[in-house]
Write a structure and sequence with these properties.
Order of helices and strands: HEEEEHEEEEEEE
Radius of gyration: 19 Å
Strand content: 25-35%
Distance between the termini: 51 Å
Structural class: alpha+beta
Low-confidence stretches: 1-33
Number of domains: 1
Number of strands: 11
Mean pLDDT: 84
Largest sheet: 8 strands, mixed
Length: about 200
């Protein structure tokens, strides 16, 4: 009898643990630290735009099912409401967003499914070598400094609701901050999926 109770108890523990695991076994990452945001209760949005060489690309479209809760609606907005603790806090990153939105991050390289090409630091852009930059803005607080990120872009995390990002592949002679915030920033005030 005691053995049956122990077996049932262990089966319940395993089943409860599996319920947290929305991601496929091949995409598992350690859970973020306790208390880090976004949490499972958060529903955040970040405006984004992608600028390559001399122009803005169209907003991305999800390329597959959203298994993470970090996705887009083809509106230039990253919708961030993690489905599992594996995508909260420090794990709510551009790499996770890219899995659903068709971006792949490598060492100094980003592949864009909708363009069908991977752009690598040093590739030619209008006759000059170009490189990737991710510019983070706080559109609701213009006194906040602009942050320019140049390395490990995929691990850049979404740290707050209503941020804005410009992902830019530009010649070294171009200041990525000069491109400004993405055109989708005004959509942060007109979202239809925000709970009342």
């Amino acid at each position: 009898m005691l053995v049956v109770v122990l077996v049932v108890f262990m089966a319940v523990i395993v089943a409860l643990d599996d319920d947290d695991d929305v991601a496929s076994p091949s995409s598992r990452q350690p859970a973020a630290g306790a208390g880090q945001r976004p949490t499972l209760a958060d529903h955040w949005h970040a405006a984004y735009g992608i600028y390559v060489c001399d122009g803005w690309l169209a907003p991305l479209t999800d390329v597959g099912p959203d298994e993470t809760g970090i996705h887009t609606h083809t509106d230039g907005i990253a919708h961030i409401h993690p489905f599992s603790a594996r995508y909260t806090g420090a794990n709510a990153t551009w790499e996770v967003f890219g899995r659903t939105a068709g971006l792949s991050f490598g060492d100094g390289a980003i592949g864009i499914d909708e363009v069908g090409r991977t752009f690598v630091d040093g590739d030619d852009c209008d006759g000059e070598p170009a490189s990737w930059h991710l510019v983070r803005y706080q559109p609701d607080n213009s006194s906040e400094p602009v942050e320019v990120i140049t390395g490990d872009l995929g691990n850049t995390r979404f740290e707050a609701n209503r941020q804005a990002f410009t992902l830019a592949f530009v010649p070294d002679s171009v200041d990525p901050v000069s491109l400004g915030m993405p055109e989708s920033v005004p959509f942060l005030d007109r979202l239809s999926d925000v709970p009342n």
